[in-house]
Structures are given as C-alpha cells and as structure tokens.
UniProtKB/TrEMBL annotation:
Residues 1-18 have a biased composition (Basic and acidic residues). It holds the Pfam family EF-hand_1. This is Osmotically inducible protein OsmY. The lineage of its organism: Bacteria, Pseudomonadati, Pseudomonadota, Betaproteobacteria, Nitrosomonadales. GO terms for molecular function: calcium ion binding. Residues 8-43 form the EF-hand domain. It comes from Sulfuriferula multivorans. Residues 50-118 form the BON domain.
C-alpha cells in the first residue's frame, strides 16, 4: 500500500492518486497504483502536447493584433513557458506582444526577448 504522501514523493499528481483510489481509503494497492501511474503519465504527455497548442494560440493572437500583424516574432514554448524573440519596430509592439502572450491559456511564464528597432 502507498499513501498519498509517498505517491507525491514519486512525483505523482494528487489528481492521479485520487482518481485511482477507487475504494476511497486514501491508499493505493498494487492495481490502483498501476492505474495511478498510467493516469499520471497521460497528464505529463498532455502537458508536452499542450506546448504546441500554446505556441499556435500565441502566434494566432499575435497575428490578429493590428499593431503586430506582419511582424516576424519567433515563438517557442516549453512546459508552458513561452519565449518571444526577434526584431520588431517599437517598444509598444514589445509590450503588446508580451501582454497578448501572457493572456493565452496555459502560459505560465513569458520570456520576452523581442528587440525594438526604434524606441517610441
């Protein structure tokens, strides 16, 4: 039997633990543990898939914004942290890109490495 605390020490999410604890005793037997590991693995894989979705949403948001349309902004995402890079026209565009990115669901951190060509 494994307790919730022991499972947490092995990086198992509480959601996976609770979902797998079918008898509700606060502990996982062998079959519940196997189920919890499977659930936890799916959650981890989903996080990485989410990075590509986040990148796409950020790019779409940047493209839709009138001030940024046509800008060459490179977007990379890793575990929810989004890095923006490239050269754009102004400080206003840098700020707008950062604000749009921060507003995208799933973004945990914005690393704004955009460089303005002209300060305004």
């Amino acid at each position: 039997m494994i307790s919730k605390e022991e499972a947490a020490e092995h990086k198992m999410s509480s959601k996976a633990f609770e979902e797998a604890d079918t008898n509700g005793d606060g502990k996982l037997n062998k079959s519940e543990f196997v189920k919890a590991e499977s659930i936890n693995e799916r959650v981890q894989v989903a996080k990485y898939v989410d990075d590509s979705v986040i990148t796409a949403k950020v790019k779409a948001g940047l493209f839709k914004h009138s001030l940024l349309k046509g800008s060459q902004i490179h977007v990379e995402t890793y575990k929810g942290a989004v890095q923006l890079s490239g050269f754009i026209d102004s400080d206003k565009q840098v700020a707008a890109a950062g604000k749009i990115t921060a507003g995208v669901e799933g973004v945990t951190k914005v690393i704004n490495n955009l460089i303005p060509k002209n300060n305004d």
